[in-house]
Please model this.
Amino acid sequence: MEVVSQTHQGMIRDHNEDSFLVDESLGLYIVADGMGGHRAGDVASRIAVDAVRKRLQNALAGSPLSDADLALEVSSAVEFANQEIRSAALRTPDQKGMGTTIVLILVRGGKAVLAHVGDSRAYRWRGADFAKLTQDHSLLQEQVGAGVLTNREAKFSHNRNLVTRALGVEPRVEVEVQPIDIRQGDTFLLCSDGLNTMVDDIDIHHTMREVGANLPLAGRCLVEIANDNGGHDNVTLLLLRVNEVKPPEEEAGFGRRLMRMFGL
Model:
């Protein structure tokens, strides 16, 4: 996997509340966007990525998991992060009300799981095909889905930043989890909404089509376009290109079990 990360506080905010994680040993890639207008959003986003990583490190330490179990562990890890944020807020009054969105991909062998809460997004390029893989958990998306607003009207709505799900806000959180197939040559983009609120999907696609062969350049260009368009929010992105699809881990897992049986 070729991985590029970019983060910037933007042109308006005085600090960066986004966090991201690249853990190639786990195959775990996360972007979290601390809740704007809430206290300690940067703390919440950092707790989220650390908690998910900690939980998945433990869950993935044993035998290889089935697709269903892998998805369940990802969902449980995000739910664990929700509890960790709430616990931290209870311990520290200044952090009361903090929250964060999250989007992540976990790649294990030839399998991958995508999960998100809130309006941070995931996109995929496969050859000439471009797809948005997530639907925002936001008031705006609900209004579009219900036919109250058109996509064009939504573009100019003042409700763009009102999320309907986030970590740290409620005792329980509904995590949207989906298995995704990965193929050699696929390119994924994970981003906070500081990118897609400043750069239309069509312009994200155009940028990747023009310079996507050079991932570091593509990452810098996307952030620069967001800032040139106003940079009203922090912007964080991960670009992931699949250079090789490894086979599932069953054989390796069987070997590890044999070694444990014989005390090796």
Summary: The first helix runs from residue 41 to 59. The chain has one domain: 2-261. Residues 2-261 form a domain with the Phosphatase 2c; domain 1 fold (CATH 3.60.40.10).
